[in-house]
Q: What sequence folds into this?
């Protein structure tokens, strides 16, 4: 074992780890130019964090390997895959190969519980974030991991917003929690298409467990939501784009969990306007047609939903109460009416986005718009996870290795977010929305 990390309690070179600070007052992401080295108190906090993770991992060998790997991800090395991490952590060139093999075994084949590790990391980050603000939102989204070849688990030609096109990639579905000013990714699932799960040879090569079955991205998202509820994560309004919100079953599942949502839906979705005939055979209207109808009635109002770095982000919004219709039958699909929120950007010939929100009738327009538009936070999260912590640097091919790597990256983010809050002035933060009060309105 290299001298850089003998155990979670012996971090001899930890003062060289440069912990990244977030933009003061905005929580808009990681700024490389604002890095700082850990002081002695920071080293102690990192040791304690690793000790908490170590309690989950069990053996001294796993604890030491995790510490080495996490410190490698936290470092300012350009490449954060196993081999360069091993090289940086081991000053003796003759022992680098052995260190590489040790780390590779730990990440690719190690028998440790990803959920327990992620839960511990989430508790650490959430504790810091909620010391001054409440959780407002749970954000569901997915991101691509661009790959070459066909052997990395889950890789196939598929669409990813990361590239803006169909390309050869893996896709991970994520759950991020957000307060007014910060965000914390707490869970990930790898999407496996039928090209993998219908091919026993590929499953065997990637060591995909036999009990893994095909699940859509919304189904994977619901699994993460269920885990978060079981783990006692503070509740927030569930946000997501139309890839998740278009399905009525998905929205109903969230309500059965006792969660409210504001989710994107497609423009061809049909609804009944509240106040119109609500019965079989009653006249429904498509969201696009309803948007033009509301525009003709001058129901759109301009709202600034985020202060940008150069200019404020604004658009025109309209909202009204509707009943979603079933896709095949023109009848009420859900028992409760929902808010329809429509975003129409300047210069566009038609609306950019449509959302269904299950929030109470008393919800204010600005509150609904600000909460709904928090979905942009995942773009910041993915940029930080990939750019700073090497989320997409993993070069292994196995199912377990991908999840272990992601768990370590989530731990890095949780520790950094907790440090960011320690250096953040309490006087500049306040929560505008309390979830429990809002949904009880």
A:
């Amino acid at each position: 074992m290299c001298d850089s990390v003998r155990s979670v309690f012996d971090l001899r070179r930890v003062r060289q780890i440069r912990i990244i600070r977030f933009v003061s007052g905005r929580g808009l992401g990681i700024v490389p130019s604002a890095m700082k080295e850990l002081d002695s108190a920071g080293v102690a906090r990192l040791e304690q964090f690793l000790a908490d993770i170590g309690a989950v991992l069990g053996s001294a060998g796993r604890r030491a390997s995790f510490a080495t790997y996490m410190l490698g991800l936290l470092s300012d090395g350009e490449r954060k895959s196993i081999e360069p991490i091993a090289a940086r952590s081991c000053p003796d060139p003759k022992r680098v190969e052995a260190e590489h093999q040790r780390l590779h075994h730990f990440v690719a084949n190690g028998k440790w519980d990803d959920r327990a590790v992620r839960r511990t990391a989430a508790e650490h980050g959430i504790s810091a974030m909620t010391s001054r603000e409440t959780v407002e939102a749970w954000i569901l989204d997915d991101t691509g991991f661009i790959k070459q070849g066909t052997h990395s688990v889950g890789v196939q030609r598929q669409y990813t917003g990361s590239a803006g096109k169909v390309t050869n990639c893996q896709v991970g579905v994520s759950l991020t929690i957000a307060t007014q000013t910060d965000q914390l990714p707490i869970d990930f699932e790898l999407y496996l298409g039928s090209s993998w799960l219908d091919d026993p040879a590929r499953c065997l090569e990637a060591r995909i467990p036999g009990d893994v079955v095909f699940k859509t991205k919304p189904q994977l998202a619901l699994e993460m939501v269920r885990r978060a509820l079981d783990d006692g994560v503070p509740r927030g309004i569930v946000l997501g784009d139309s890839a998740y919100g278009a399905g009525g079953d998905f929205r109903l599942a969230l309500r059965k969990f006792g969660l409210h949502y504001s989710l994107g839906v497609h423009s061809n979705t049909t609804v009944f306007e509240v106040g119109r005939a609500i019965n079989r055979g009653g006249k429904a209207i498509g969201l696009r047609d309803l948007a033009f109808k509301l525009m003709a009635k001058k129901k759109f109002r301009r709202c600034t939903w985020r202060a940008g770095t150069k200019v404020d982000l604004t658009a025109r919004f309209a909202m009204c109460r509707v009943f979603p219709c079933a896709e095949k039958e023109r009848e009420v699909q859900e028992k409760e009416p929902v808010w329809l929120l429509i975003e129409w950007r300047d210069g566009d010939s038609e609306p950019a986005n449509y959302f269904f929100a299950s929030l109470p009738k008393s919800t204010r327009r600005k509150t609904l718009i600000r909460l709904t538009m928090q979905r942009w936070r995942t773009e910041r999260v993915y940029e930080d996870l990939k750019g700073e912590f090497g989320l997409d640097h993993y070069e292994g091919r196995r199912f377990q290795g991908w999840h272990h790597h992601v768990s370590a990256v989530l731990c890095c983010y949780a520790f950094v977010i907790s440090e960011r809050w320690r250096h953040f002035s309490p006087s500049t933060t306040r929560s505008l929305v309390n979830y429990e009060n809002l949904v009880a309105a």
Notes: DSSP finds 15 helices and 14 strands in the chain. Residues 3-35, 425-430 have pLDDT under 50 and may be disordered.
